[in-house]
Amino acid sequence: MHSRPAHTAERTERRISAATSILMCALTVIAQIVTTLLLTIFLREKASIVYGFLVFVGAVFAIRVYQRPGSPSYKLVWMCLLLALPVSGMILFCLWGGTHQAKSLSLKKVSPIRLWESQRMDSETNLARLRRQSPDWGRLAGYLQKRGFLLYRRTRVHYIKSGAEFFEDLISHLEKAETYIFMEYYILAEGQLWDRIFEVLKRRAAAGVEVHIIFDDFGNLTRLSDRTLQVMQDAGIEVEVFNPVHRYVSRIYFNYRDHRKITVIDGEIAYTGGINIGDEYANLVERFGHWKDSGIRVEGEGAWGFAAQFIQMWKMMGRTLHNEDDYYRSRHQAEEGAGFCQPFTDGPLNNPDNPAEETYIQLISSAKRMLYITTPYYAVEDSVQKALCIAADAGVDVRLMIPAIPDHKMTYMVAETYWGELLHHGVKIYKYTPGFIHSKSVMVDREVALVGSINMDYRSFQLHYECGALMYHMPAVEELLEDLDQVMAVSTPYTLADWSKRPWYRRAFASVLRLGAIWL
């Protein structure tokens, strides 16, 4: 356990290094200008030759970027920067664009959590049954299973349509924890909800329940104080901070974040979705109008999928648990449930393999009748954009639900640049009139649904650690559909005429911003 002075020092370092990271871009532009002026003043006749050499080196870097695997849009941004501003581009590329970045996040390489042979066999059996029932969904499940994400049958999933309902459900089950509690969240903010949750965690820890928490450092720079962190540790709660900013002052990796939302209780119950720990998620405070969010409660064998994901991250961060991995499995035989559940994760260590993005593409491409999507942000590769357009052209009822009141205006302007093409192809777009929709969900043909932490943008697909759960032929799919119908009932359709009415200066600015969408 760290002392309070140590935490205070770390917090100060975090704030300083975060400011340093943001200023780095400005400093590299200054370096570009200074280099150009110095060459002009001191070298005169040779200035063009020297600068031409810098341009040549920048072009070599750009070719290197083009040849490596990965996101086409991500590569395009770096190539433009390296060719237009070679000095700034090369400095930033060495800091942020190299292939080693994601592998140097102070995360250890650990072996996957051991699976029982019976689990593998059950998953294979479940996959065979799903393939017979629905070949398309069997293909998707097989893709994820090959990456280590098992398909579970003895699982029940309850869809939770609001933050207030989610927290009441979560707290009631936390109070019943007997063995352990795992929590992994991007934001863990002080407030009314955290006070209630902490009181429960403190009591359970005092009763001998293991409590382990991971939260993202960058997401909580201004939302969780050193005093609260110390109080948590004094209560016997083990806390680990993902990617502490004070450790990467010289590396500047603030782009990589743990965006997951996971709670696991005794290996029997798990929660995920778009909901962080914060008062705005339950509308106890107002931010951007009414905050619409959602999540799921997973009971039975599928909960182990999230427990294994947490244990893997805990070990990657250099921590150990009090017991062997198998100790954290459920102690009860789960009852057979309807349909199949498949928890999965993604993160930059997988790049250029991105299960989250590929899952979205397969869900979109496999839709035959209806495809409903909720997302607060939208900035995708051409492959995703084209898949949505093709689905709509093929007669699929494609509906995209987005906020009417955005939380990040520039990100929202970038999203607008995509909507015109979608509308031209017949995609229906709905703006959630009461305020901000933060839910991340997909519903396909009333057969399959995805709920998790994954936004439809570059950050979630390329830079963040994310999680989600696919539900095949489960009652929760219908529960999600009912909620989406209610969302559309209070939303305003966004039309091609609305899109065309944007002022010229907004269009121009948004087009420029889109080039840097990977960093917004």
Compact overview of the structure:
With 520 residues, the protein is α/β, with parallel strands linked by helices.
Can you walk through the features of this model?
It contains 17 helices and 20 strands. It has 520 residues and is α/β, with parallel strands linked by helices. The strands form four sheets. Strands 5, 10, 11, 13, 14, 16, 17, 19 and 20 form a nine-stranded mixed beta sheet that branches. Strands 1-9-7-6-2-3-4 form a seven-stranded mixed beta sheet, sandwiched between helices. Helix 8 links the parallel strand 2 and strand 3. The two termini are 35 Å apart.
Radius of gyration: 24 Å
Strand content: 15-25%
Shape: globular
Helix content: 40-55%
Structural class: alpha/beta
Count of discrete alpha- or pi-helical segments spanning 4 or more residues: 17
Question: How does the SSE layout of this entry go?
Answer:
Layout: H1 4-43, H2 47-67, H3 72-84, H4 86-97, H5 117-133, H6 135-146, E1 155-160, H7 163-174, E2 180-185, H8 192-206, E3 210-216, H9 226-234, E4 238-242, E5 257-258, E6 261-265, E7 269-273, E8 290-292, E9 295-300, H10 302-316, E10 340-346, H11 355-366, E11 370-374, E12 378-379, H12 382-393, E13 397-403, H13 409-424, E14 428-432, E15 435-437, E16 441-444, E17 448-452, E18 456-457, H14 458-463, E19 464-472, H15 475-489, E20 491-494, H16 496-500, H17 504-515
Parallel strand pairs: 2-3, 3-4, 5-19, 8-15, 11-13, 12-18, 13-14
Antiparallel strand pairs: 1-9, 2-6, 6-7, 7-9, 10-19, 11-16, 14-20, 16-17, 17-19
Helix pairs in contact: 1-2, 1-4, 1-9, 2-3, 2-4, 3-4, 5-6, 6-11, 11-12, 13-17
